[in-house]
């Protein structure tokens, strides 16, 4: 299947101006500009496979219900098999005169099998047909995205495991706050991706309902069997209101919202990779295959891929707003506005799929510079809170302990050293103004002030102690089924 076929060329292109499927009522043809403006075939041909699948289920139901004959069904099946092959091989002649994917395929079917092709649209409208196609298409896209999230997670867990005990500064306000491990930091992104997967899986439930049978908007007077079509197409249930079935695109909006959140998470990770890779920070290096050079500055190695992930998040957010805006003013039921749902939707799925694919690889292309991370931990008093907590455990009220440590930090600033470099006496002198602080300090404070001591002490569920990071990884693997 190809997106690049030029409409109007190829074996079955019509040479005479063909009659449109609905042209009987009209006295003049549309201009070329209007034709191009109203046609969706250049982009909705991506749903051809789903369109054929939906039509085959519909035809099977029509035959089962005696609405069309068994021979009609056989003809439709034969014609559709040929059309599917033509599309697969890039031989199908998409024609702008036939407006959209639905009319293009129906017209070709009629050319191939005659009257049976003309009977296919019995009890159906393009309104319920297109809604069905989009849902089938989106269901496939969600399944692909869920598989790719799982792949990304597997890689993330590998790297997190390697660095479950690698210390780095944790930041708040981009200022050194407290020691964490790099594995713990990566596991934060694992948790985000877990919620992303949940959102897509949940959205899939509402995507997976069958609009077909709603016809144009009011249902149909043929004795159709919607449950049969739903089960043929793997839908969990039918849409229960015909007006709603053909008109709402909330499921597509939900998908775009889930996509916007996923991209937002990956954009944050990208921003961190970019920052960490800056020589000013130097926490990581990124494999060359994700970077490019500069055409003027020979020394440059730029993190283009994460920068583009961050940039592409903008277009995904834009698509969400586009679909919300598309929907908000539409009276029931179907309006042609809805044709505009496809490009943002397709673009969103494409962007998410490519981004996840790249990320699964990129995450293993991170080279951690553990010395630089540790070096950064010795600037910024990362264990100051541990010192305060020590005093609290020895009986000093927390506010007093906070004040005592603030004085010690000020003294360290003046001396130009980090807290662990003070002698016990120096620490006591620095805290002298806070009654009860100095006498509570003992030599055991130096174990508390080390990075390892600080990390190991945060050993509850969700904490950064290496043993807890390993437990989080094991829990994640068990959740994912190994
Ligand atoms: N191409 C149209 C769309 O994408 C199909 C439905 C058209 N229905 C109609 N009554 N014009 O929405």
TrEMBL record:
Main location (coarse class): cytoplasm
Organism: Thauera aromatica K172
Family indicated by similarity: Belongs to the lyase 1 family. Argininosuccinate lyase subfamily.
Top-level taxon: Bacteria
Gene that encodes the chain: argH
Residues covered by region (Disordered): 1-20
PROSITE patterns referenced in this protein's UniProt entry, alphabetically: FUMARATE_LYASES
Compartment(s) of residence: Cytoplasm
Pathway(s): Amino-acid biosynthesis; L-arginine biosynthesis; L-arginine from L-ornithine and carbamoyl phosphate: step 3/3
Name listed for the protein in its UniProt record: Argininosuccinate lyase
């Amino acid at each position: 299947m190809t997106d690049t076929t030029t409409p109007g060329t190829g074996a079955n292109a019509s040479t005479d101006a063909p009659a449109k499927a609905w042209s009987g009522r009209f006295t003049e043809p549309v201009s070329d500009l209007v034709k191009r403006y109203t046609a969706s075939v250049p982009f909705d041909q991506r749903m051809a496979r789903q369109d054929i699948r939906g039509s085959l289920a519909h035809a099977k139901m029509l035959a089962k219900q005696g609405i069309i004959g068994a021979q009609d069904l056989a003809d439709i099946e034969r014609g559709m098999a040929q059309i599917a092959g033509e599309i697969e091989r890039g031989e199908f002649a998409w024609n702008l005169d036939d407006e959209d994917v639905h009319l293009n395929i129906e017209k070709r079917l009629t050319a191939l099998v005659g009257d049976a092709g003309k009977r296919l649209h019995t009890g159906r409208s393009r309104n319920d047909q297109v809604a069905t196609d989009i849902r089938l298409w989106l269901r496939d896209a969600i399944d692909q995205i869920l598989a790719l999230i799982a792949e990304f997670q597997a890689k993330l867990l590998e790297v997190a495991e390697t660095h479950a005990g690698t210390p780095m500064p944790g930041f708040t306000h981009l200022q050194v706050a407290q020691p964490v491990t790099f594995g713990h930091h990566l596991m934060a992104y694992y948790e985000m991706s877990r919620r992303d997967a949940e959102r897509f899986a949940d959205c899939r439930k509402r995507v997976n309902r069958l609009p077909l049978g709603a016809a144009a908007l009011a249902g149909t007077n043929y004795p159709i069997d919607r449950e049969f079509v739903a089960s043929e197409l793997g839908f969990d249930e039918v849409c229960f209101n015909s007006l709603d079935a053909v008109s709402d695109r909330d499921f597509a909006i939900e998908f775009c919202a889930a996509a916007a959140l996923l991209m937002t998470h990956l954009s944050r990770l990208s921003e961190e990779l970019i920052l960490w890779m800056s020589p000013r920070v130097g926490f990581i290096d990124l494999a060359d295959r994700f970077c490019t050079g500069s055409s003027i500055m020979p020394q440059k190695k730029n993190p283009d891929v994460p920068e583009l992930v961050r940039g592409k998040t903008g277009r995904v957010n834009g698509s969400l707003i586009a679909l919300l805006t598309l929907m908000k003013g539409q009276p029931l039921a179907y309006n042609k506005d809805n044709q505009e749902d496809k490009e943002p939707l397709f673009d969103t799925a494409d962007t998410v799929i490519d981004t996840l694919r790249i990320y699964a690889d990129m995450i293993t292309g991170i080279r951690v510079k553990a010395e630089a991370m540790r070096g950064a931990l010795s600037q910024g008093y990362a264990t100051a809170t541990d010192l305060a907590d020590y005093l609290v455990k020895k009986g000093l009220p927390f506010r007093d302990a906070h004040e005592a440590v603030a004085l010690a930090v000020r003294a360290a600033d003046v001396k130009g050293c980090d807290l662990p470099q003070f002698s016990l006496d120096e620490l006591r002198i620095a805290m002298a103004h806070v009654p009860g602080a100095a006498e509570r300090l003992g030599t055991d404070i130096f174990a508390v002030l080390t990075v390892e001591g600080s990390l190991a002490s945060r050993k509850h569920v969700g904490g950064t102690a290496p043993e807890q990071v390993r437990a989080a990884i094991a829990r994640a693997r068990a959740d994912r089924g190994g």
